[in-house]
């Protein structure tokens, strides 16, 4: 018999929207790629759209266009920053609920973290001490019968691309120490890598979605744009969160 689920999420990440929507990134129109994804997910049934950073590429005007697109969806959205985002610009939309740090749905708590502290100038980032303290507090407040999904931009596990793993989550050991202290954490979802990741770290499912912007080829020593036509198009991830703590997910890939 099919099992009912409590929460259905959609993850969209790494849009890199430009100040001028006609500006190309790696030869692609990222605005058009993002809108292609948005048109597709308008037909999805979901409880929440989760946007996991690099929403824009240092582009103040792009947040207004993004917010307008989100307001047209039939379900709520929330976002967190990536290393190319402008946090002060994102704060302008707090009244719309996009900057929520915790979302509770059914048996699940989704905790959104800012991993953009201590930038290394290359794309890496860390959780500030205040963010780690917030995370610890939220985990302590989680009931024993609740499940937790953690969202952040920078990947906290190796993805076996040397250049990308050099710019992952800088203080991942501190992050995992908190996760390991709380058995209610069942999943971690991130962006940043521009390709699909699905790993199991102990009892925790670690997921990353491909970007809506151009993808990177996985397992690469240096940054290499994906050229396999099966994986070059914009994409998003669907995530099912079940009442018993199980997570199931798939990636939806669109044509370029």
Automatic annotation (TrEMBL):
Presence of the UniProt keyword Repressor in the record: no
Keyword terms of this UniProt record: Hydrolase, Iron, Metal-binding
Keyword Transport attributed: no
Location of the Calcineurin-like phosphoesterase domain: 8-195
Domain of life: Bacteria
Short name of any one Pfam family annotated for the protein: Metallophos
Entries under Gene3D superfamilies matching the protein: 3.60.21.10
InterPro entries: Calcineurin-like_PHP, CNP_phosphodiesterase-III, Metallo-depent_PP-like
SUPFAM superfamilies in UniProt: Metallo-dependent phosphatases (SSF56300)
Protein family (similarity comment): Belongs to the cyclic nucleotide phosphodiesterase class-III family.
Record's protein name: Metallophosphoesterase
């Amino acid at each position: 018999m099919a099992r009912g689920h409590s929460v259905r999420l959609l993850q969209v990440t790494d849009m890199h929207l430009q100040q001028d929507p006609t500006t190309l990134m790696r030869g692609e129109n990222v605005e058009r790629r993002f809108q292609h994804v948005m048109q597709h997910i308008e037909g999805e049934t979901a409880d929440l759209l989760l946007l996991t950073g690099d929403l824009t590429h240092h582009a103040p005007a792009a947040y207004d266009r993004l917010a307008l697109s989100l307001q047209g969806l039939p379900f709520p959205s929330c976002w967190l920053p990536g290393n190319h985002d402008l946090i002060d610009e994102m704060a302008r939309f707090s009244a719309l609920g996009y900057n929520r740090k915790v979302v509770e749905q059914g048996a699940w708590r989704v905790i959104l973290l800012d991993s953009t502290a201590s930038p290394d100038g290359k794309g890496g980032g860390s959780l500030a001490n205040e963010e780690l303290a917030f995370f610890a507090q939220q985990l302590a407040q989680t009931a024993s019968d609740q499940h937790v999904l953690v969202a952040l931009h920078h990947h906290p596990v190796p993805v076996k691309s040397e250049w990308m793993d050099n710019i992952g989550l800088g203080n991942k050991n501190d992050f995992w120490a908190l996760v390991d202290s709380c058995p209610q954490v069942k999943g971690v979802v991130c962006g940043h890598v521009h390709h699909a990741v699905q790993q199991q770290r102990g009892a925790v499912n670690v997921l990353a979605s491909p970007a809506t912007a151009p993808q990177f080829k996985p397992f690469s020593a240096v940054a290499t744009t994906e050229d396999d036509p099966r994986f070059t198009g914009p994409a998003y991830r669907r995530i099912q969160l079940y009442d018993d703590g199980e997570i199931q997910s798939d990636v939806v890939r669109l044509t370029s």
